[in-house]
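Notes from hallway chat w/ T.B., transcribed later so I don't forget. T.B. wanted the structure written out for a chain they're using in a teaching module, and asked if we could keep both sequence and structure tokens in one place. Agreed to drop them here.
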Amino acid sequence: MGFFNWIRVEATGYAGGIWLMWNEKDCTVTYISSNEQILHCQIRDKHSSKTFFGSFVYGETNRRKRQTLWQSIKTIAKATEEARILLGDFNAYRAPRDKRGGAKPHITSMSDFNECITDSGLLELEDTGNKFTWERGEIQEKLDWVFGNIAWDIKFPTSRIYYDLKYKSDHKVIVLSLYSQEKQTTSTTAVPLPSRLGSREWF
């Protein structure tokens, strides 16, 4: 993949683990904390010298087990006032429209997810393309999400999300551009966020 630095949260049971990879020429990454469903780090973009916190998620498929993830997100939010981004495969929907085909989404599961995002002071980042990030057969779902806090919006007002083609996975790749040229007139370099490998990749 061309990355030479990494941090990995080992797989546990059916949880596929989280693998964060980056190159030192682009950024520095400082590990802060992790559990089976989330990896929390501080990241410094060397192109702009801006620092932010990144939380990378691989949520459990079981609704009850995801309660640990929701609590972790809230705990990090209370301790982090600086710019922060939260992204990954949450294995959860926010609304019935986030699933097409198959069984109906679980109402309590959606409520738990939305309550966590609201309580953590997070906003969903603008994205482009087909909203469904996972598909198998006739079923399409939005399971991958990207959120930022108010401080993120202030520090990176032109950041933008793209859901790219699938790569060796049934999930689409999440591409985060910190400095989207579509939102501004001055040209800047889009710096890719470090990737998480395993069941899918983030760039």
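Follow-up for T.B.: The chain has one domain: 5-197. Might be a good example for the class.
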